[in-house]
Amino acid sequence: xxxxxxxxxxxxxxxxxxxxxxxxxxxxxxxxxxxxxxxxxxxxxxxxxxxxxxxxxxxxxxxxxxxxxxxxxxxxxxxxxxxxxxxxxxxxxxxxxxxxxxxxxxxxxxxxxxxxxxxxxxxxxxxxxxxxxxxxxxxxxxxxxxxxxxxxxxxxxxxxxxxxxxxxxxx
Length: 171
Description:
By secondary structure, the chain is mainly alpha-helical.
């Protein structure tokens, strides 16, 4: 009798295969427009979140504020992002994607969406919707939390060792 297949291991392998295939598509466009993977994701999340702070972005991405600041400095130098002081609290600095940054994001996302559309042509819409729901559900379970904004699916609780106030309001 054949050995039972491990559905979770097969799902993991399928996700890894998809990830590698997307990386083959993503990296040339990143090279063409001159951004790194980290810079792209930072730009993407700044645009999707409502005027985030450096701390709230660091929390969402699960990285140190210094990492975000380093990436942010490069994006700001290139005119893709700007920092703005909050009118309610001058100590708080909010991040905003510039029109140039929005155009760059649209170009990258358009290219990637074209690739996905081409690869998924011929697959019926129900299967695509089912795959989307499944991957979002698994991703949310892995992270332990679901963002209220369906476009932003990266929230996760801080590690147990971080029993301190949220960094979300620091600039």
